[in-house]
Amino acid sequence: MIARCLIYALALLSCIVPQAGSPLRFAAGRAVTHEGAPLRFAACRAEMGRIADSCGVQEASFPFENVSGESVMIHVQTSCSCLKAKCDPDRLEPGASGTVSLSFDPYHMSGDIELRAMVTAVGPSEVKADPAVLEFHVFVETSDKWDYLPVRIGALALKRSAVSFPDGESVVRILCANTSEKALEPHVQLVPDFLEARFEPAVIGPGEEAGLVIRRSGECRKTSFAVKAGNGLGLIRVLNE
Q1: Closest CA to 74 of 117, 27, 17
Q2: Distances from the Cα of 28 to the Cαs of 61, 118, 137, in angstroms?
């Protein structure tokens, strides 16, 4: 049985060629078939290892066979919009083989990520089987050194775009940085009379951190003001009621 499954998996591998520029991996492991399951997969888990968030779409393929004895339609649903699924073909006759391909886009993702795809076979009989679960595991490393400052106004990266003054406090500070290779002199605009806002230092060197210091005088109300950094323009909100 094991030998036959290995021969079957190798035959499928020899028929599928990855497209240039699109990394393709095949799930590894023993053949997986549950009692009464209409589909037999060569493996149900893909270990993608460590990748950078800038490396582009990553693909894994899961070869399978229709062992149900009847013609079936294949439906695939994934656990995250970042994971796309395709089944080729999506209709199989008894004994026919197919492949479920999972594509993962790591852009703006980070950390240890476990994703799943549920594969359901629908045939003419009324017998319903639980979907096969395919697992996709990857660790994404961020390539953005400023990922801890998620708000962007041009070349200015900020920790947050909204602040509130705690009771008894008159000053709050937003950590920011110049992500460009040139000196940056950001400006505040349309600041209400009861607030004072300035950058310290006023000119931020390339790749250096700074602070947007906001000071209130007297009672503070809900408001906002503008920040201009190079060609970028954004709003800083004050949430106090």
Answers
A1: 117
A2: 10, 18, 12
Which residues neighbour 196 within 8 Å (Cβ) at sequence distance 6 or greater?
A: 214, 215, 216, 217
pLDDT tens per residue across span 119-176: 999 888 766 778 999 999 999 987 778 888 999 999 999 999 999 998 878 999 999 9
Specify the DSSP element, H or E, that contains 13: helix 2-15
- Are 172 and 118 found together in one domain? no
Q: Do 81 and 162 reside in the same domain of the chain?
A: no
C-alpha span between 146 and 157 (Å, rounded): 7
pTM above 0.85, yes or no: no
Structural domain of 174: 151-238
Whole-angstrom Cα Rg for the chain: 27
Look at residues 141, 165, 184 and tell me which one is the last residue of a structural domain: 141
pLDDT digits (tens, 9 = 90+) for 66-117: 998 899 999 999 999 899 999 999 999 999 999 999 999 997 788 899 999 9
- Non-local (6+) Cβ contacts of 222 within 8 A are 238, 239, 240, 241
29 with 66, same domain: the answer is yes
d(CA 132, CA 6) in angstroms, rounded, equals 20
